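Input chain follows. Return structure tokens only.
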Amino acid sequence: GGGYDDSQDDKLLRAPDSQGNAIYIVDANTGAKIFTISQSASDLNVASMLYAIPGRISSIDRDNDGLVDHLYAADMGGQLFRFDIYNGKAGEDLIKGQRVADLGGDDEINHRRFVYGPDVTEVLGQGKPYFAIVIGSGHRAVPLGLTIDDRFYMLRDEGVFKRDEYGRFRFFDSVLRDSDLYDATDHLLTSSDNLVQENAISELHSKNGWRLALTRNGEKVFSSPLLLDYQIFFTTYIPSAGSDSQCAPPTGNSRAYLIDLLTANAVTDLDSDDTIDAYDRSAQLSQTGIAPDT
């Protein structure tokens, strides 16, 4: 990734960065640059690459031949990109790709930033294979901020299993927005009301993934998530000013989440009240301050 633009430290509204809005592929032995992807003057120009990319680039070798086939990258504007590598091709035919999601916004509340990269896994769900991409937002430069409505996401990308008439992998018909994702925040998929539950299941299946609001004031994600056995592990940070407790430490608290990849439901009864509900998605860590990576 191109790195961080320190003008992000003070940006209240989403605006293009002057550096960092690129992806570089280099020869690991010599350091020589092989391929560049950016907004302009690159081997592959993508007009929507306006914001810095400080996080890791997730790479996938889908057929275990030792060659990377897909790249996923997220930026400081709340956008997600996919790039497909056609190994054996040369020049501009080597890599093709575009923006797949725009989950940020142009006002202060929705100025979500992806400082850390996504994790990706292959899923066979509803008879259709897809890549599940999971990522959370949070502004690392302003950990005490309470304004931004940060969220955690899972997107279903079926295009990597479909080809067009030119043999290229397909993309979504349009860039995904929040409205294209099921709002899993209220845990309605386990509702005791059958009608509510049926409607929630139907809506989930009609969407291209789900979103989960981080409901504690100022809660944000400061690490890449970890996918394991169709479950997602990630940590969040809550500044002391956003805590419900009058005894919150001045350094704030961190929480560890364990949720189901396909539904965003809680996996187990973390609070031991004999009911698995929204409160069982996470538990407060004993350590204070910002937690490390999972």
